[in-house]
């Protein structure tokens, strides 16, 4: 799901859900501080073999190791989804099978954010995957892929 391709109603729903999440975590600043820590880390946090990432106000954990090669394939798929509008669009049959296997590998992974103050938040990386397509969690993409300025615009309702 590409945020920019969503209709206004869907964008508002995502902004409202993000507002609920940020409020539960201690506010927009706490949420943005966490995202900035993720972006500033030397290595990509999701490839940490300890399956966790600590930031100033809490920690993020996930339930399965994500290997660098798998992460790189996921990154390519996300770029394809943002460009083409669908995650599998334009892939060769071999690339489609590899993408499907990558997404099925990542489907059971759940990410949990535990702030020092506020509520624990969890999300899956992949919400849905089948032969025809896949849906990646918008929260996952916001946390790990979208740039901070874009996230600020969503939080401020500028879309």
Describe this structure in words.
It is a single chain. The chain has one domain. The model has no long low-confidence stretch (mean pLDDT 90). The longest helix is centred in the N-terminal third of the chain and has 18 residues, at 8-25. The strands form two sheets. Strands 1-2-3-4 form a four-stranded antiparallel β-sheet. Strands 5-6 form a two-stranded antiparallel sheet. α1 (8-25) crosses α2 (28-40) and α2 (28-40) packs antiparallel against α6 (148-155). The protein is built from six helices and six strands. The chain has 159 residues and is an alpha+beta fold.
Provide tags for this entry.
159 residues, alpha+beta, two-stranded antiparallel ribbon, 6 helices, 6 strands
Q: What is the compact description of this entry?
A:
By secondary structure, the chain is an alpha+beta fold. The protein contains six helices and six strands; from the N terminus they run H-H-E-E-H-H-E-E-E-E-H-H.
Strand order, largest beta sheet: 1-2-3-4
Number of strands: 6
Category from helices, strands and their pairing? alpha+beta
Count every helix, treating DSSP H or I runs of 4 or more residues as helices. 6
Q: Which parts are unreliable, with pLDDT below 50 for 5 consecutive residues or more?
A: none
Number of domains: 1
Q: Indicate the proportion of strand residues.
A: 15-25%
Question: Mean pLDDT, rounded to whole units?
Answer: 90
Secondary-structure element string: HHEEHHEEEEHH
Cα-to-Cα separation, first versus last residue: 16 Å
Bulk shape: globular
Instruction: Please summarize the sheet with the most strands.
Output: 4 strands, antiparallel
Radius of gyration over C-alpha positions, nearest whole angstrom: 16 Å
Helix content: 40-55%
């Amino acid at each position: 799901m590409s945020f920019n391709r969503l209709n206004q109603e869907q964008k508002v729903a995502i902004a409202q859900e993000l507002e609920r999440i940020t409020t539960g975590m201690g506010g927009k600043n706490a949420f943005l501080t966490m995202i900035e820590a993720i972006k500033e880390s030397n290595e990509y946090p999701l490839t940490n073999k300890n399956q966790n990432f600590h930031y100033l106000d809490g920690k993020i954990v996930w339930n399965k190791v994500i290997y660098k090669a798998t992460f790189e394939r996921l990154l390519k798929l996300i770029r394809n989804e943002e460009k083409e509008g669908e995650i599998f669009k334009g892939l060769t049959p071999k690339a489609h099978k590899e993408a499907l296997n990558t997404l099925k590998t990542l489907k059971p992974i759940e990410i949990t954010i535990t702030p020092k103050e506020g509520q624990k938040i969890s999300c899956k990386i992949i919400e849905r995957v089948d032969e025809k397509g896949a849906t990646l969690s918008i929260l996952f993409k916001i946390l790990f892929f979208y740039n901070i300025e874009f996230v600020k615009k969503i939080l401020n309702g500028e879309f």
